[in-house]
Protein 1
Amino acid sequence: MAKYLAKRLIMSIITIWAIITITFILMHSIPGNPFMKEGKMPKVVYENLQRKYGLDKPKIEQYFIYLKNILKGDFGDSMKSRVETVNDMIKRGFPVSAQIGLQALLIALIFGPALGALAALNQNKIPDYISMVIAILGISVPSFIMGTIFIQFIAKNVSWLPIGGWGTFNHTILPSLALALMPLAYMARLMRSSMLEVLNQDYIKTAKSKGISKAAVILKHAVRNAILPIISVLGTLISNLIVGSFVVEKIFGIPGLGSFFVSSISNRDYTLIMGTTVFYSIILIAMLLLVDIAYMIIDPRIKLTKEGR
Amino acid sequence: MKKLTTIMSLLLVMTILITGCSGGKTDTNKKILRTNNSSEPGSLDPALAQGTHESWILDHVFEGLFKKSEDGTVVPGMAESYTLADDQVTYTFKLRDDIKWSNGEPVTAYDFEFAWKRALDPALAADYAYQLYYIKGAESYNNGQGTADDVAVKALDDRTLEVVLESPTAYFLELTSFYTYYPVCKEVVESNPDWAKDPSTYVSNGPFKLTEWIHNAKIMILKNENYYDADKVKLDGIEFAILEDENTAWQKYLGGEFDFLTPLPQAVVAQLKAENNSELVIGGDVSVYYYNLNTTIEPFNNVNIRKALSMAINRQTIVDKITQGGQLPAEGVVPFGMLDENGNEYRDGVGNLIEYNVEKAKELFQKGLEETGFKAEDFSQFSILYNTSEGHKKIAEAIQEMWRQNLGIEVQLENVDFQVKLDREKAGDYQISRAGWVGDYMDPITFIELWESSSSFNDAKFKNDRYDELVKTAKSTVDQKIRMEAMREAEKLVMDNMPIIPIYFYTQPYAQKSYVTGVFKPLNRYPVLTYADMNK
């Protein structure tokens, strides 16, 4: 196990380095720069700005300076904000996004698999159709439409639900719901198909023929096995949810991390682009590792070392 | 299954742990006006500000030597009086004797001298440093050749500030009301370079002071009791939410969570206007929406082609059917609201320089085609370049269709990321591109100077010696008659060459609840909430 973790750690560092390098190259090859705007920009002012942020240095030098700083955990100064560094932005934005994300995940985890299992157990019957209609809606209706609908029809009519903004737990309810729908639907569909597959397995028949009660068969044998595919998508899903969604955060006015992923690129805020990308990569890699470990715990057939993989 | 339950409950605990939000309570006895500042300021340091998302707050917490009054003119603010020497470039400002910083210390002429030199410091790299280039020695200090001592702004004593300009500037007093010219507290800034990052160390001299700043969420300013005119300030404070989504902000206004709101979604303005809603105010603005024509490439280097393209656009239709916010069809490059040498509307002295005339457009277009050897079909290889936005798209589509119907050409539309558009404009890699400009101050030169050949915003690459000469004249004398004459001639000249196609003059619509009074909007500023009152 320790050996496996060490190997994974080294792989992770190499992956992150590759991501930094590729992002750096891509970022500098798109047209534009952080200081261009619609309006006057005298050459003097432009050069002062370039110098201040070290953009006047050769690209390769900038790259090594960046690598050096990142080893110290310093993501640098944002080129658009004179108030917060990139570290500040991540530090304040991440807890906000993570809260919404985890709440959404919780909603999705509670209702998604349940809905899927319900559908599978009632295949081609009314509950199946209802669940799958919900699932298809959840997957196909984009969150900006859901968000708008929530604001228009729920927040406006329910006095204790604020229309947008940030501050209290009530502010988090609608955005969490809006964010939860898509993973909920996705999990429901995943659960339904894997449950259907499991229900046809021999060991379920064996369990049934042994006279175990229907509830026990479903809970102990069917659900436990059917849930595995869901666990395997959890890593990516959690990472995506906790770093925030651009759309949901924008519509509900949430001061999270999600909006930086898009705004940093449109602003050509180089340091913020790198910061968000690297931060997301670290989260994603960590989550994938956690999922692999969780997998091993839940499914004894999987071994992470040697013969198992 | 048990393990699964464990994971689930762990997640639940994590969620609850992170959910440690505090409730935002507002004291209901206080008069706090609630509104929205559409995006997070990049800084609330006046020297570093560069846009309305910063200046709307700054205009309420700071005040310059002069300030904007309700009737749009500039009146003394921190200054009590001034004299202009016979050389037309030496200003001597006398400061009021009752002005204090929010920390109780007096505001002195030394604070102004310090603030202006600081904004010009090349190491600070302020975007808007160029707003101070009117001052003698300012540009050379900013580009690293000169020193701070060479900048001709000097405090003679606590209450006297002497400024020498590079050349006579008729609108200098107005410039002193602009945020780059705001003072900062020398003592505070010198002892703490990070003073502007935290409300607890933030010191300002205006009607309000900064008390809370939750990044990307909220900015709170409360009445500054040290402000000399505090008796007239009726609000206890202003709460600015920071919400980017216009529609969500509008829903909050409808739901009673905002008392005042700008900007408004386009569709909302059209609807409120149609139903004559009394909460809607169409505020004036001095800005122009226009298309650049790249005059360095064929066939756009041909004046007849350029004029034909302009003449084939029905601007009235665009403002009536598309923008629908009370915008006015452009009549030239200078919007309404600027005054001439006699205090009359500048536009009246120039008249409408733009014509919608399909017949004449066809004629000019034919002539242009013959002169350049191009055919109407060739225009299908040209495109209108605009940054991705629903609003720009609708206008571009309308113009595309007008050109198709009136001139029989099929230009393409090309939407790109904003930075890409800017990059291509600078590089001259475009044929037609959308642009806009908001006047910095109330003088036509803020528009006219854009097409001077060395201007950094002359993306149409217009070059005309007579035009450059006229701009120079207008920028080097304070004799308004000579200046205005020069600018009128310059505007006629640029419209006669049509390197750019002005489309409409903007407005700034805003909504205020019926109980809000006392808000006014200077033409080139965001609405001033300083003297607002709420009678709920």
Protein 2
Amino acid sequence: MTGIETFLAATVRSALPLAFAALGELVVERAGILNIGLEGIILAGALGAVVGAGHGLAAGYISGVMAGVMLASIFALCVVWRRTDQIITGTAITMLGVGATGSLYRVLFGASGAALSIPTSRPFQVPWLSELPLVGPALFAQPPVTYLLFMLAPALAWWLYSTHAGLALRAIGEAPAAAEAAGVPVRRTQALAVVFGGACGGLAGAVLVLAQAGTFAENMSAGRGFIAIAIVVLGGWRPLGVALAALAFGAATATQFVFQARGWVVPYQLFLALPYLVTLAALASAAGRTRAPAALGR
Amino acid sequence: MLRTTLVIASGTAVLVATLAALLALGGYPVLPALASLWVGSLGSWYALTSGTLVRAIPLMLAGTGVALAFRAGVFNVGADGQFLVGAAAGVAVALAQPPGVMAVALALLMSAVAGALWAAIAAVLRRRFGVLEVISTIMLNFVALDLVSWLVRGPLQEPSHIYPQTATLPEASHLPYIPGAGRLHVGLVIAIAAAALVGWIVRHTAAGFRVTAVGLNARAAVSAGLVDAAQVRERALIASGALAGLAGGVEVCGVTFALYENISPGYGFTAIVVALLAALDAWLVIPSAILFAALEAGAGAMQRDAGIPATLVTTIEALLVLALVITQTLRFRIARPVPSSGAPT
């Protein structure tokens, strides 16, 4: 692979968990709910994947998704059923994710747990396409779960804008009272949206473990849940926009590999901080250019 | 106030019961574990002063800050980052001064200024670009961590350039210990004074009334011609950053005497729980901070004595917040987070 191909491949790899988490959060926010607990949900997915991976990769992905769904269901219960404050509840969900995964990991895998290492998904070379110059290795020689993302983004776009259910979801995010009057089951739809977001967040955590790190570490999500929420804003609450925004963040993370490869002397902490700085800059630049669902967070 | 005191008392009971249940679930011996929790937190004069109360100081300061911001409807979840830059500024200033009382005073002042400036970034991002504080303050936490990581390996590294930490403060630049109370330092007095002062301001001054009015119903406060709501929120956020920054300064001058990466075991997040259990009342932050400090000090003892993961406490804190919001014990609502990114068209 050439240098630029390596960079593009690293971009897609770094973008993958962010894209899954952000697409899920997009659906949640379109239903008018802001789930700050996404960070904890990703962690739950990561631990779930570690637990399930003992029975094979597929089991790892499934149990990661299930763990995300479980934590998201608690959030749905509070926010949709009891109408609790979304931000406080989300913060508690993130803390629960951090605390519970840290404790459970130690209980399940012993005090150190550091030796634990899980076989990761191998890249699957798509015949012919992976031979394409430049984008071939980046897009078509990745772990198979990457190809699921290629389908998820357009599928969500179609579902949101071309189906009755998608219209109903968007209506709830803009004017829940009007949607209710039009016969849309508002609470049920919101709860399902939160659960879908939990499944995507859990998958993002599973990707971190099974397609990338190959192990679990406390707090390994490292703020990706919050970055994903920023990506939803930057993507203008539209699936394809969100997918592209996730790629832009992947590129920001991947620049550190380029600098390392070229031996440029810059404090490495600057690269570690880069995704967070880019998030702030991106949110500031998105001001006034995108519009949030009118009833978001209420 | 009586009601909230009852909430804190029953909160304590619920905490201990939940802990016992989780321990039983995890297959740990419940009674010995609870015994070491007690011994490690309140069971002896030494544990109370050098363990619990020392830990309560940063929680009290940061918790007071969080309570103030939340009260104004600003979701400042960046106390941890503000604590870190405060600690960094405190160490840098104290090391640059000739050792003595003036060095400590200046260090504490500059740590509060640093925390305020760090929070001001989020305030500017909100005012100029409509970026939600919830996101910006969290991002700034990560940036602060990387900043400290760079400082202790770069410009502020100790003279021998071996360890990733700063030089140790000379003894004359330490906050003095309280006589007869082990490692407990006068930071406790500063923290209690800060909480008391903020509580008094909120209760008895026009500025405090504006904060509460904006937090409860910004639109009504503006319609009544009371306030510039954006400005009130901004100032509350900056003051809250100053308090968290001061917590960092007090921690380096009173406990660690040096700056290193893991200087905050998540004080900024525990501060959120501290403020919520205190129902955002700065006076009640004092007992609430002591409660959580005892819990965390005891958890450390449980981990040492019985190998029980200390992260269990984070789990319990999260469950407590969920219980508080579900039972609607918290009678306030944080002002709407949204009218910001993408102002309604």
Protein 3
Amino acid sequence: MKLNRVVITGVGAISPFGNGVEALSEGVFSNRSGIVNVGNEWRESVTDILCEVGGKINFDLNEKQISRDLRRNMGRVSILACLSAKEAVKMAGLDEEHFTSGNYGISFASTTGSSKSIVDFTSQFIEEKSLSSIKSGHFFQVMSHTAAANIANFFNIKGRVLSPNSACSSAAQSIGLAYETIKFGLQKGMICGGAEELHVSTSATFDLLQAASFHYNDRPTETPRPFDQDRDGTVCGEGSGVLVLENEDHAKLRGANILGEVVGFSTFASGEHMSRVTEKDLVAGIERLFMETGISPSEVDYINAHATGTIQGDLEESFALEKVFSAKGLNPYVSSLKGHLGHTLGASASLELILCLEMIAKGRLIPTKNLDTPDPKCGKINYLQEYKNIRPKLIMKNSIAFGGINSIILLRSYANGDE
Amino acid sequence: METNEIFQKVKEVFVVEFEIDEDAITLESLVFEELGLDSLDSVDLIVALEKAFNFKIDRANDGAVIAQIRSIQDIINYVESKQA
């Protein structure tokens, strides 16, 4: 059986830095922070929340550019997803003929359905003990695969639609499943990634689990602080990142511009604990990925860490990277983009992978924002604390989620189709 | 409530709820064929009419009547019947 190579031909993003990949890239390469104080708004809903900071999209999305019959089924998470997918599809040069052919599908997810819609739906249900005043589209905003289903309707896609909702690993699993789908010849192309809307209920959950930052409420741009000795937890953010993956032969045949190549994907579970990741599990998963792909860890020149700024999560991930790389004399640069964007949960892996492509395109690595003093308790790895003019050739992208679900993607630069 | 007042309120429902241009709405307008509503919209139409006219639609017994609605005039007739 011939296994296809899988390339990236389009990207789209919406983030606190603005609408589009260019705005995202400009914000992060300028070392800006997307984190603001939203305490006043959140305390109206959750009076005892400690965390007051979030990565919020504050500009008008111009939702009415989406026709009413489609928009009625969309909560904020789906609107973010569809608008960023529009950018990715345009960049890839795909049109309706591709979508209705049955050869293109979707693999896209978020942590849950629209958080705001879930709260509204449930409140009405509980208060009125009836569903009679709930609108027809409301359930479609609530269902777990709302983003994927809405993208399908938005583009009239006739291929497969997958929605691996796995919290913070949602986008990584979506991209991975898209990669496998194309690799095994089941579709010629896939629109994939993840989206997340910022909602007080999500941040309050991290707050409850003592995993949310709250010591920097008056200095929001200084948190989260991945790997830093003064980190105090993560900061939730919102956004959407979309990638168009295609069969390399097909992409070349239609003259698409190729941005990079996905060369490996692994997803594996802890199977032991809902919220605690361990060095042991991560090492096993990373080693398995290298064994399956035949790629050597020595080829990796940059690692885009999951590192969200929690005390325990950053420790375990850094220990695992030390064991797989540093302990064997390997020294790839490591950074996390959560310091700029916050933790965009279901969107994180796709937004961050898009920024990895930007690093390849610009030949410049992005450091971890707010990493002033690497925590001496963390693993001994090559922490990137300033921008560096290096064009990475092989990037490892980590994604770690509640539920004990971890995913890793290997991304390779692409030049003239023969790299 | 006078017929014209009902018409104005129905118009408002279509403008606000379904984003339809006010000028396109006449008594003769066909709700599905001309104004573009679909089966999901008909669910929302019921909710919107209940709110606008402050009555409760009996889903079990009014279903057949509602299913017959084709035009704006049909909606007005239905509202008037509920108020009788």
